[in-house]
Amino acid sequence: MPDPDRHVNSVEPCGRLLTVVGPSGAGKDSLIAYARRELSGDPSILFVRRVITRTAVVSAEDHDHLSPEQFAIARAAGQFAVHWDAHGLSYGIPSTVRTHLSVGGVAVLNGSRAALPNIRAAFGRVVVVHVTAPPEVLAKRLAGRGRETEADISHRLRRGRIDPPCPEDWVEIDNSGALDVAATVFLDLIRRTLSEVYEITRQ
Fold first, then answer.
1. pTM of the model
2. Distance (Å, rounded) from C-alpha 36 to C-alpha 132?
3. pLDDT per position as a tens digit, 129-171
4. Model confidence over 160-199: pLDDT tens digits?
5. Scanning 2, 127, 132, 193, which has its CA 20 to 30 A from the CA of 13?
């Protein structure tokens, strides 16, 4: 949920937050990692490091780890702009992201479909990047991880897709094929968003 004492104010930041969501196996982490490598030299683009109560491993998302006790202390201290719980873990987005947005930057966040209302409440208008792939592709990728049973995979797939709550700020990217194909679309979106923000700040 958003921090009630640090709720988005009446003036939206001039920057823009791109929130990447999608079902497990859609390749969100791979897509974000690809874009981070390509755009690493541009300080106007921030790739947000989430804080998660899960130990970081090389093969998974690059994030900052806190124990549940440390996470609770950080949350109480107002270090998160928004936080949520999912799958037995706690997730937090650093409040410093607002600083980057306030000066006209673009931030890219690995978000959560269930947390979208909280993310919108914390940051105002966001662009939702919904990464998709057919169910059979998702099932194959999840099975290849070797971390879940067939029942777990079936449960994830049954969660299905969701309808865009704000179609004008919703972008679909099909990542069922080669990664560089979807990454080209994603990179174009990030660069286009940055150009739009630049034009707004010039007015």
1. 0.82
2. 20
3. 999 988 888 878 767 766 666 665 565 656 655 555 566 689 9
4. 555 555 666 899 999 999 999 999 999 999 999 999 998 8
5. 132
Structure tokens at 37: 């490598």
- What tokens were used for 17? 């937050």
Residue with tokens 């490598």: 37
- Is the CB of residue 141 less than 8 Å from the CB of residue 175? no
With tokens 């981070």, the residue in question is: 36
Joined tokens for residue 8: 């988005």
Nearest-angstrom CA–CA distance, 123 and 98: 8
Gap between the Cα atoms of 87 and 93, Å rounded: 17
Residue 12 has pLDDT above 90, yes or no: no
The β-bridge relationship of strands 80-86 and 89-94 is antiparallel
